[in-house]
Amino acid sequence: MTTPRTKRHHVLVVGAGFGGLAVARSLRRSEVDVTLVDQHNFHTFQPLLYQVATSGLGAEDVAHQVRGIVRGHGNARFRLGRVTDFDLDGRRARLDDGSELHYDTLVLAAGAVYGDYGVAGVREHAFVLKSLQEAVELRSHILRQFEAAALDAHAADEGRLTFVIAGAGPTGVEMAGALVELFAVVRKDYPELAAQQPRVVLVEPTAGVLGPYTSATRAYAERTLRRRGVDVRLGTSIVRVARDHVELDDGERLATHTLVWAAGVRAHPLAERLGVTLGPGARVPVTDRLHLEERPEVFVIGDAAGVPGHATRAYPQVAQVAIQMGKHVGRVIRARSSGTASAPFRYRDRGQMAIIGRNAGVAELPKRFGGGRFGGFPGWLAWLFIHLIYLPGHQNRVSALATWVYNYFTYDRHARLVLDGRTRGSAAVGASAADPSPAPGHRASDAARRAA
């Protein structure tokens, strides 16, 4: 089946993540038709996936139905499907069910997938946090380790209660802090584990945690993690991953059944279908208007887009970049329809923040906002406030706030549910929430081949 062309200019947006939704919102009052296509019928708020994985929030708190988001957009429609290829000359996108979507303007907003840096065993045995399904699977796996440990007095020696995190960026730091807090809750459920101590090992190849932050912030985050019991291994890399252990570059072998891979990111494999030479991280080179040099009708935004005019620089892979790019593409499309000139894209840094755990967060403002830095309880509150603002859906915000308040005052986490039946060793490295992700149990190499 082929979707026919419409009379009005048709904008096809691949991926209903932050960037894709920003494009649709920017064009909601324009004389164009917009089609959003995504494998999932919901938008995932990826910055909070680690909270789903550690029982801090339920899956429904961080996801919102795409049709509900665009319901008030008279010119926007949603199509459930997985894009597998493009016919750029014919201006068509091919879906995995054999159908095609015609477009006048294409916006690729498919996001990023995790890269393994060539480390053996990562694709087969690591867990990642790029989709809602993966977060639920990781939560179930973590809780299942405690169930197994409760039945085996030697479980700690076998690594059942050792949780390794690769990468000490914001995701790794937040995951480490959240796991420690989860342990305090879960151990109350298992009196059998009174003599066994769960541990978190955070492995980072560079000299510090939270690399993009200032030295003072990095030092504070590291102190806080160590004080809360996280085993922080700096200047250390994982060189091999097996089902029941990981091997470090210093020769140490850590027994573990849980490796959370937060160490590497690359653009979604759909970027390879655009027929251009990709830059570092498989990012697509774009002009200062965010479209391909030879094809002004094809835009690339978010994690898959390179920095215009810079072959080696890269934008931070955060929601703000994708949102600002999406808004900019909307302005360019509107300017073209009215025959006026458009301005080049300029990323405006809004600052950065991370949460380490209860009452401990860090936030840094850009120079144009004073360049302030604050941590501890104020940083923690700022993190909560900003994430509530950007969380889509009023019901999601109310639910998340209520859950956070409950967790804070009761020191409990009610979302301790084992919901999947997946076996260990089948993690999918390379899944994307913005665009098609593989079904559970498929390796990343399989996912990349299908996406391509």
Give a description of the structure:
- There is one protein chain.
- Strands 6-3-2-10-20 form a 5-stranded parallel beta sheet, with helices on one face.
- Helices cover 30% and strands 21% of the residues.
- It is built from 11 helices and 23 strands.
- With 452 residues, the protein is of the alpha/beta class.
- The protein folds into 2 domains: 138 residues, FAD/NAD(P)-binding domain (3-Layer(bba) Sandwich), CATH 3.50.50.60; 242 residues, FAD/NAD(P)-binding domain, CATH 3.50.50.
Distance between the termini: 20 Å
Oligomeric description of these chains: single chain
* Strand percentage: 15-25%
CATH class of the largest domain: Alpha Beta
Structural class: alpha/beta
The helix tally amounts to 11
Mean pLDDT: 88
* Biggest β-sheet strands, sense, barrel: 5 strands, parallel
* Poorly predicted parts: 423-452
Widest sheet: strand order? Answer: 6-3-2-10-20
Return the CATH architecture of the largest domain.
Answer: 3-Layer(bba) Sandwich
Can you give keywords for this protein?
452 residues; single chain; 11 helices; 2 domains; alpha/beta; 30% helix; FAD/NAD(P)-binding domain; globular; 4-stranded mixed β-sheet; 5-stranded parallel β-sheet
Quick synopsis:
It is built from eleven helices and 23 strands. The chain has 452 residues and is of the alpha/beta class.
